[in-house]
Input
Amino acid sequence: MDLSAITKHSALHAKPSGLLLQYGTAGFRMKAEHLDHIMFRMGLLAVLRSKQTKSTIGVMVTASHNPEEDNGVKLVDPLGEMLAPSWEEHATYLANAEEEDMQRVLIDISEKEAVDLQQDAFVVIGRDTRPSSEKFSQSVIDGVTVLGGQVHDYGLLTTPQLHYMVCCRNTSGQYGMATIEGYYQKLSRAFVELTKQASCSGDEYRSLKIDCANGIGALKLKEMEHYFSQGLSVQLFNDGTKGKLNHLCGADFVKSHQKPPQGMEIKFNERCCSFDGDADRIVYYYCDADGHFHLIDGDKIATLISSFLKELLLEIGENLNVGVVQTAYANGSSTRYLEEVMKVPVYCTKTGVKHLHHKAQEFDIGVYFEANGHGTALFSKAVEDKINQLTRELEDKKGKAAKILRNIIDLFNQAAGDAIADMLVIEAILALKNLTIQQWDALYTDLPNRQLKVKVADRKVISTTDAERQAVTPPGLQEAINDLVKKYRLSRAFVRPSGTEDVIRVYAEADSQESADSLAHEVSLAVFDLAGGIGERPQPGF
Ligand code: 16G
Ligand code: MG
Output
C-alpha cells in the first residue's frame, strides 16, 4: 500500500467531520452532497475485498427508488451476491474513519481479513442515471486506483446488470458473457424460445406498457427491445426524457400509493408494470371495466412463478423441493394460498433481499419475493444439471417441459432480483399458460392493508424478533399491538425500524380497508406513545 498516496487522495474526498453513516440494508444511502468520501472509500474497500477473494468485485452507484437528490453505493460480492455481513461492518468502520485514521483502518481491515496485499485486484463499476452518479463513479475509480486495483467502468447499468457482470466474470463466462450484449442476448434468446412454444397469439397477449420511473430501466429497455421484439412489444413511459427520477412514478410509488403512476394512461384490459429507479423491482397492474385499479405485487408474482414451476416439475416427474420465501409484508392471503391451495412451503425472513436470497438457497428451487417487487428464483446446481440431462435425453412431453424449465433458468437473473428478467419470465408464463392479467389477479384476493410511518427520536428503541413480526422492545409495545389486533377480523399488524429512512414503519391488514386503516392508525399511536414519538401525533385519515 502506498500510504502517502492514500492520505493525499483521501484529502481530495474529505469526510465532513462528525458525519457518521452505516452500511444499511442496501449499502450507504442519503443526500448526494454528503457522499463523495463514501464513494472513494468504497473504491478502497472493493480493492481489499477483491484481493481477499481473488475475484472481481462490483461497485454500484445508485439510490434505487429514493428521490433524485439522494444517492448511494453498494458492493457486489463474487457470485453477484450482496456483500458478506462481516465486510458490511468493515464498510461502516472505513466510512466513519477520520482522515488521520484512514491508513490505520485500512491496515486493520487487511490484517483482520488476512488480505494478501500483493494479490491483484479487479473492480467493476456501474451507475444509475442520477445527476450525481457520474462524478461519484469517478470517486470510486480514484479509490480503486490509489490502492493499485484495476477498474472496468461499465457506465450506466441497472443494478441487476452489474450483479450479472460480476457473476459472469467470476465464473469464466459460464453464466454468460460479461458484456451488455451478453446480457441482452442471454435473456432474449431464452424468452423468444419460450414464447415460440406458446399456443396463443393475438396482440393483446404480446404488448405491455412499462413505467420506467424516469430511470435507467428506460435506457436499457430501449437498447434491448429489438432483441426480444419477436415475443413482446413494449411501450415505455416515464422514460426520463421529461420527468424527475422516481417522482410520482415507479414501482415504489405505485405499490405504496396503490395507484397508477403519473404520465401513463391505462385503458381497460391493458397489462402494465412499473420498475423502480435502478430496475431491480417490478409490480404489475391493470384497470378493470369499471376503471378500478388493481395492483399485482411481488406476492402475486411469486405465486404465479412458483405455481408454474411446480406444474413443470410435475410434468417432468421430478420430485424436487420448491420453497417460497417472503417477508412479514407479504399479504396474508398470499401466504394462505401458497400453503393451503398450492401446498408449497412458505418461509418468512427479515426485510432486505440478502435475507430472502440466503433462505431461498436452501431449496432445490427457491422462489423469493418481497411484496414491494424485489425477487427472483434460484435453482441449485443439482437441479440445473438434472434439467440439462433431461433436455438431452427426452423428446416427448417431458422433454418439452424440461426445455421450458431450461429456458426459465436462463431467463431469471439468479445473481439478483431483476425487473427486466422478472418481466420477461412473467410475460412468458402468461403467454404459455394463456392467462390474462385478470385471471392471474384472480388467484386470490389481497387482504386490505395499510402502511404508515412514525417519526421517533431514536428508531433503535424498537427491536424485533420472529422475522420482524414481534417487537421485543420497548416494553409494552407488543402487548399493545396484540390488544389492538384483537379488535379486528382477519387482522395482523407489526412495526419495525426502517433500514433506509429515519422512521418506524407500521403495517396492518384486516378484513376491510376501513379496519386496516384504523388498525394502522391505532398502532401508530401506540408507537408514538411508547417508543418516543416526535413532532405531531399521528392523525387518522390518509
Ligand atoms: C432496501 C432493500 C429492500 C427492502 C427495503 C426496505 C435491497 C437490495 N433493498 O431497499 O429489499 O425492501 O430496503 O426498506 O436489499 P425499509 O427498511 O426502509 O423499510
Ligand atoms: Mg431498487
Q: What stands out?
A: The mean pLDDT is 95. DSSP finds 18 helices and 19 strands in the chain. The first strand starts at residue 28 and ends at 31.
